[in-house]
Design brief:
The complex is a heterotrimer of chains A (293), B (282) and C (438). Helix content of chain A is 71%, strand content 2%. Chain A is mainly alpha-helical. In chain A, helix 2 packs across helix 13, helix 5 runs parallel beside helix 11 and helix 7 runs antiparallel to helix 10. The longest helix of chain A has 33 residues. In chain B, helix 3 crosses helix 14. Chain B is globular. The two termini of chain B are 18 Å apart. The chains are: A mainly alpha (293), B mainly alpha (282), C alpha/beta (438). Chains in contact: A-B, A-C, B-C. Chains A and B meet through helix 1, helix 3, helix 4, helix 5 and helix 7 of A and helix 1, helix 4, helix 5, helix 6 and helix 8 of B.
Chain lengths: 293, 282, 438
C-alpha cells in the first residue's frame, strides 16, 4: 500500500530515520549479530574457548525430536492465544464502545492485566492454579476433575494459554477501543438509517473500517505470541511437563540459559527469526491487501 | 446510540462484567494476599476476604522496603521506574514518529529496506542477545545509569508500525491541501499530522510506559547498586528465596503499589483519548 | 610580625599534613550473592565484621537476585570485562564455572599465592569434596550447604496409625498407603526437587554411580549410568504409586514445599534448608529424618550429597585484590565464627572443628532438626559414588532428566525407556560440554 501524495525531499527522510537507525544499530544489530554468529560456534559460557563448527549446531538441531515437538507446540499455542486474545478483546471493546454509563469504569478495569508485570503475573497464576493448593484449583478438584498441570500436558497447555491470553486481552482491547472510537458516528448512523441491524452494521461497516487497527494487532500479536510469551511459560510451567509447554522461543531461552548451549540456542533463534519474518512478510503481502485505509 | 434496545444493553453489561471478573480476579488475589501474613499466603488456605494486616504490610513495604533484600524503600524504586518508563515512552514515540513519517510520506531509495531493518528488531528477544548487549552497554559506560536502562529499550519497532498504520489512514487530500497552502514537510507534520496523531500518541505512550515500567531482566542485569533498582526487580527479589520464607505479603503489597502508576497513566491518557477523539469527529 | 606568624602557621600546617597518617587506599572487594531474608542479614553482618577487623580491604556485598540470576549476571559481567571478585554460585553451576580455565581462580591457588594458612583436612570432606578436584584441591569455597532430608508430620502419622517413622522405602510406601486411607487423598508422600531426590541423592545414598569418573569429578569424559536396574525399579515403584496418588509428583523445583507446611503431604522430601519456612508455617508437630533407602542394597545408606552454593573467585583480578579475598576466606573459616553461623542460620558448618564444637555445646540436644543433614553427610566416608557430582550444563541436564521422569510418571513411557532416554540425551550434552571445557 502506498500513498499517492508524498514529498520529494532528498535528504530529509534520511535525517528523520537517523535517530531510530542509530539506536537500532548500536543496541540491536551490533549485539544481535554477535549473538547470531555464535550459532556457528561451540563456546563455553565465559567465551574463553570458542571453536568454529560451521553448520553443526543446525544439523544437531534438526536431528532432535524435541525440536519438532516444540514446533508443533508453538503452532498450537500461537494459534490459540492469538485467536482467543483478539476475538475476546474485540468482543469486550465493542461492548464498551456503546455509550453505557459504566463504560469508563470498565475501560479502566480492562487495563489492569497489562499493568501487572509479567514477573508478578506468573506468580498470581500459580496462586490460582497450583494443583492442590490453588484458589481456583480446589473447586475444580472438588467437582471431581483431576486438575494436574504438573503431569498432564494438556492441562499445562490450557494454563499457559489462559495466562498468555489474559495479558494480551488488555493490550488488544486498548487498541480496538481506540480504533472503534475513531470511526465517525455519522457513518454508522447512515447504516442504521438504511435499515441495517447491529450485527450487519458491525460486519459491513465497522469491521472494514477497523481493519488498519486489526492488521496492526494481528502482526503484533503474532510477534508477541512467538517471542514474548516465554516469561509467562517460565513462571507458570517451566516448559513442562515432559516438554508439553515448550514452545520454540522457550526452548531458545532454556537451552541458552546460563551459557548452557549458546551455539544451539543461537541457531534456534536464527530459525525462529526466519520463520517469523516470513510470516510477517506474508501478512504484509496478502493480508494487507484486504485492509481499507 | 442509534437504536435503543435495552436487551442489547443488558447483554453488553453482562459481557463486560464477566470480562472484568476474568481480568481482575488475579489482581484481586494479589490485593488480598497483601493483607495477610506470609504464612497464610503460602499455607494453601488463604481466604478470599481481606486479612487484618493491611496497614502493617503497606507501612513496611513503603517505608522499610523488602527489608532483607534491597533495603531500598518503595518510594525510591518507584522513582527509578518512573524515570526509566517515561524515558522509554518519550524516547520511543520521538524516534518512531519520525521514522514512520519518513517511510510513509517520502519516496527514496531503500525506503522499504529501512522499514524492515527497523521491523526486524522485534524478532530477537533481548534474552537471546543478553550477553553481547550487556557488553555494549558496559563498554559505553552505561551500567548503573538511567541511559543504560532507557536507550537499549527504545529500539523496538511497534511504535513505527503503529504510526505507519495511522499515517496510512490519513486522507491524501489533507496533504494536497497543505501543499496548496505552501506548506513543506515540516509545516505539514507540525500543523496537520501531529494534532491528528494525538490519539495514537496517547495509546503508544500508555503501552510504552507500561512496557518500560514492567521490565525485569534488563534492569536486573545492568544495575548492581541498590539505589538504581526499579520496582519490578525489587518485587521479584522479594519473591526469590532460598531456604527462607519469602515475604509474600510484602511482595504483593509492593506489587499492588507498583500497579497504581501504570493505571493512573491509563486513566489520565483516557481523558486525552476522549478529548482528541471529540476534536477529530469528522 | 604577622607575616612571620603566618609563615610559622603555614609551616606547621604543612608539617602536620605530611606527617598525618597517609590516606590509606582501601581495596574494595565486590561480592555478588543470592541470599535473602535472614541469610541476607548474615551476609551483610559478615562483611561488616570483616571490614571492621582490618583496614586494608572492604568487602562490598550486592544481592543480585536468585541463584540463576546471580550466575547470569556473573557470566555477562565476565564477558564484558567487569566481573566481581567473589560470586556465589549454586552447586549446579560448578562444572560451568570450572570448565573454562582463566574464568576463575581456584581457591587453593588463591590461598597459596596469598600465603594464607589453609589446611584442606580441616574441612568436612563431604562438603568440600563436591567443590574440589579429585586430588583434593579446593576450587571454590563452600558457603551455604544443605542436604535432602525427609520431613515428617508427626501428628498426621499418629492419626493414620503409623507407629514408627519410616526408615526404608518400603516402609515409606506402607506409611503413605495408611495416610491415604486416613484421608490424605491427594498425597501419600511426595518431594520437591524431583531429580535431586530420585536420581542424584538416590544414587549417592545407595552407593551406586550417577555417572562414571566419580560422577564427573575426575574428568569431563564422564558417562551417565543411572539407568541401572535399581534406578528402574525405583522409578517403576513411583509410577505405580502415582496412579492412585500414594505418591504424587510435585514438580521439578522447590515451589511445592508448601504441600508439607499446609499439612497436605505428611511425608515430604526436600532440602534441609526448608527448616526456616517449616518453623514459620507448619502448625503441627514435625521433624526431619534421613532419607529412606532400599534395605536390600548392599552399602545403603552411604552418605548424601550436598546442595546449596559456594563462593567462586573470578579470574583476571590484581594480586592485591586476591590477597583481600584470601584474608576474607580465612576469616570465614574461623571455628567460632563457623559454629555461630551454623547455629544462627542453619547453614551447615564447613569445618570439622565447628561441627564438633556445636556438638560439644549441646546445641543438637536442644535442636535436633539441624543435625539431620549432618548425620546424612557424615554417615560414612564418601566413596567414588558419593563425593558429589559434576556434570556440564547441569541446569539443562536437570531439565532433561525431569522431562523424562514426567513422561514416565504420566504414563507416556516405561521406567526403562525414560531412564534410557535421560541417559542418552544427557550423554550428548556431556560430550558437547567436554569439547568446550579446556
Amino acid at each position: 500500500m502506498e500513498k499517492s501524495a508524498f514529498f520529494n525531499s532528498k535528504l530529509l527522510p534520511y535525517l528523520l530515520l537517523v535517530p531510530q537507525l542509530v539506536i537500532t544499530f548500536v543496541f540491536f544489530y551490533w549485539p544481535a549479530s554477535q549473538a547470531l554468529w555464535q550459532s556457528f560456534l561451540r563456546e563455553d559460557a565465559f567465551g574463553l574457548s570458542s571453536e568454529f563448527i560451521g553448520m553443526e549446531n543446525y544439523q544437531a538441531l534438526f536431528a532432535e525430536p524435541q525440536y519438532y515437538k516444540a514446533m508443533l507446540t508453538t503452532v498450537v499455542f500461537s494459534t490459540l492465544v492469538a485467536a482467543l486474545s483478539l476475538s475476546i478483546a474485540l468482543l469486550f471493546a465493542t461492548q464498551a464502545d456503546k455509550n453505557l454509563k459504566a463504560a469508563p469504569a470498565y475501560k479502566t478495569f480492562m487495563i489492569w492485566p497489562y499493568a501487572v508485570a509479567p514477573a508478578v503475573a506468573g506468580v498470581l497464576w500459580i496462586f490460582m492454579f497450583q494443583p492442590s493448593l490453588g484458589t481456583l484449583a480446589r473447586p475444580l478438584r472438588a467437582m471431581g476433575f483431576d486438575w494436574n498441570p504438573l503431569l498432564n500436558g494438556n492441562h499445562a497447555l490450557i494454563l499457559v494459554v489462559m495466562a498468555a491470553v489474559w495479558k494480551q486481552i488488555s493490550y488488544n482491547f486498548l487498541f480496538f477501543l481506540a480504533g472503534l472510537q475513531s470511526i465517525p458516528k455519522s457513518v454508522i448512523e447512515a447504516g442504521a438509517i438504511d435499515g441495517a441491524g447491529p450485527m450487519r452494521r458491525f460486519w459491513t461497516i465497522v469491521f472494514p473500517l477497523l481493519s488498519p487497527t486489526t492488521f496492526f494487532l494481528l502482526v503484533v500479536n503474532v510477534v508477541y505470541v512467538f517471542f514474548d510469551t516465554f516469561g509467562i511459560i517460565d513462571a507458570v510451567t517451566g516448559g513442562g511437563p515432559a516438554g508439553a509447554t515448550t514452545t520454540m522461543v522457550y526452548k531458545v531461552y532454556a537451552d541458552g540459559r546460563l551459557g548452557g548451549d549458546l551455539g544451539g540456542s543461537a541457531a534456534q533463534s536464527v530459525v525462529l527469526m526466519v520463520i517469523v519474518i516470513a510470516l510477517t512478510a506474508i501478512q504484509f503481502r496478502y493480508v494487507e491487501r484486504k485492509v481499507q485505509y | 446510540m442509534v437504536e435503543h434496545r435495552p436487551w442489547n444493553d443488558i447483554i453488553a453489561y453482562a459481557i463486560l462484567t464477566l470480562g472484568v471478573f476474568i481480568v481482575a480476579f488475579p489482581v484481586y488475589l494479589a490485593l488480598i494476599a497483601s493483607t495477610h501474613d506470609a504464612a497464610t499466603v503460602v499455607g494453601g488456605n488463604m481466604p478470599l476476604s481481606p486479612g487484618g494486616r493491611t496497614l502493617e504490610n503497606y507501612y513496611r513495604a513503603v517505608f522499610l522496603g523488602g527489608s532483607r533484600t534491597s533495603r531500598e524503600p518503595v518510594g525510591h524504586m518507584l522513582t527509578n521506574s518512573f524515570i526509566s518508563a517515561i524515558g522509554i515512552a518519550v524516547g520511543k514515540i520521538f524516534i518512531s514518529i519520525l521514522s514512520a513519517y519518513a517511510v510513509v510520506y517520502f519516496r527514496f531509495p531503500f525506503r522499504k529496506a529501512a522499514f524492515w531493518i527497523i521491523f526486524v528488531t522485534l524478532m530477537l528477544p533481548v534474552e537471546v542477545r543478553i550477553y553481547p548487549t550487556y557488553k555494549v552497554v558496559s563498554d559505553l559506560q552505561m551500567l548503573d545509569t538511567y541511559a543504560g536502562l532507557i536507550l537499549p529499550l527504545i529500539a523496538s519497532a511497534t511504535g513505527t508500525l503503529l504510526f505507519r498504520q495511522f499515517f496510512m489512514t490519513v486522507p491524501d487530500e489533507l496533504l494536497e491541501a497543505s501543499r496548496i497552502d505552501g506548506a513543506g514537510p515540516f509545516r505539514f507534520f507540525w500543523d496537520t499530522l501531529l494534532p491528528l496523531s494525538r490519539t495514537t500518541i496517547a495509546a503508544l505512550f500508555v503501552i510504552q510506559f507500561i512496557y518500560g515500567w514492567n521490565q525485569y531482566l534488563w534492569p536486573l542485569l545492568i544495575t548492581t547498586q541498590d539505589s538504581m533498582q526499579t520496582i519490578v526487580t525489587g518485587i521479584k527479589k522479594m519473591l526469590t528465596t532460598t531456604d527462607e520464607l519469602a515475604e509474600w505479603q510484602l511482595a504483593m503489597a509492593t506489587a499492588v503499589l507498583a500497579m497504581l502508576p501504570p493505571v493512573a497513566v491509563v486513566v489520565f491518557m483516557q481523558r486525552l483519548f476522549v478529548r482528541g477523539l471529540v476534536e477529530t469527529e469528522k | 610580625m604577622a607575616l612571620r606568624q603566618f609563615g610559622a602557621a603555614a609551616t606547621l600546617t604543612v608539617a602536620l599534613a605530611l606527617t598525618a597518617a597517609p590516606a590509606h587506599a582501601v581495596t574494595e572487594i565486590q561480592w555478588w550473592h543470592a541470599m535473602t531474608g535472614g541469610n541476607n542479614d548474615i551476609v551483610n553482618k559478615l562483611a561488616e565484621e570483616f571490614n571492621a577487623s582490618q583496614g586494608d580491604y572492604k568487602v562490598v556485598p550486592s544481592f543480585k537476585g536468585s541463584y540463576p540470576d546471580t550466575m547470569n549476571a556473573g557470566i555477562a559481567a565476565f564477558r564484558a570485562g567487569n566481573a566481581p571478585h567473589i560470586i556465589q554460585v549454586f552447586e549446579v553451576g560448578t562444572a560451568t564455572m570450572m570448565g573454562a580455565t582463566g574464568a576463575i581462580k581456584p581457591v587453593y591457588q588463591l590461598m597459596k599465592d596469598a600465603g594464607e594458612p589453609f589446611d584442606p583436612k580441616a574441612y568436612l570432606p563431604t562438603i568440600t569434596g563436591y567443590y574440589s578436584t579429585s586430588k583434593g584441591d579446593m576450587l571454590s569455597f563452600p558457603f551455604n550447604s544443605s542436604s535432602m532430608v525427609m520431613w515428617i508430620n508427626k501428628d498426621e502419622l499418629k492419626k493414620a496409625g503409623v507407629v514408627e517413622i519410616p526408615k526404608t522405602w518400603p516402609e515409606v510406601f506402607d506409611a503413605a498407603k495408611k495416610l491415604k486411607a486416613a484421608g490424605h487423598a491427594t498425597c501419600g508422600f511426595s518431594n520437591a526437587w524431583a531429580t535431586w531426590a530420585h536420581i542424584e541423592q538416590f544414587s549417592a545414598w545407595h552407593n551406586v554411580p550417577i555417572g562414571t569418573k566419580a560422577n564427573g569429578l575426575n574428568g569431563f569424559d564422564t558417562e551417565l549410568k543411572f539407568n541401572s536396574p535399581l534406578h528402574i525399579k525405583h522409578l517403576q515403584n513411583l509410577i505405580d504409586l502415582q496412579k492412585d496418588k500414594t505418591y504424587d509428583y510435585s514438580g521439578r523445583g522447590g515451589a511445592s514445599e508448601s504441600r508439607f507446611g499446609s499439612g497436605e503431604c505428611a511425608i515430604f522430601l526436600t532440602s534441609s534448608g526448608y527448616y526456616a519456612t517449616a518453623k514459620g508455617t507448619a502448625k503441627f508437630d514435625f521433624t526431619s529424618v534421613p532419607m529412606p533407602y532400599y534395605p536390600d542394597v548392599t552399602g545403603a545408606p552411604q552418605n548424601s550429597i550436598i546442595g546449596g552454593a559456594s563462593l567462586w573467585v573470578m579470574g583476571g583480578k590484581k594480586p592485591e585484590e586476591y590477597k583481600g579475598v584470601a584474608k576474607f576466606f580465612a576469616f570465614l573459616s574461623d571455628t567460632d565464627r563457623q559454629a555461630r553461623l551454623h547455629q544462627e542460620s542453619g547453614y551447615l558448618p564447613i569445618t570439622r572443628a565447628a561441627y564438633e564444637k556445636t556438638k560439644a555445646d549441646g546445641f543438637y540436644e536442644k535442636n535436633p532438626i539441624p543435625q539431620t543433614p549432618l548425620k546424612e553427610l557424615t554417615n560414612k566416608e564418601p566413596t567414588e559414588n558419593s563425593r558429589g557430582l559434576r556434570f556440564g550444563n547441569m541446569v539443562q541436564m536437570r531439565d532433561i532428566w525431569g522431562e523424562e521422569m514426567e513422561a514416565a510418571l504420566a504414563g507416556q513411557k516405561t521406567a526403562k525407556e525414560a531412564l534410557d532416554a535421560a541417559v542418552a540425551r544427557g550423554n550428548a550434552m556431556l560430550r558437547s560440554f567436554e569439547k568446550t571445557a579446556k
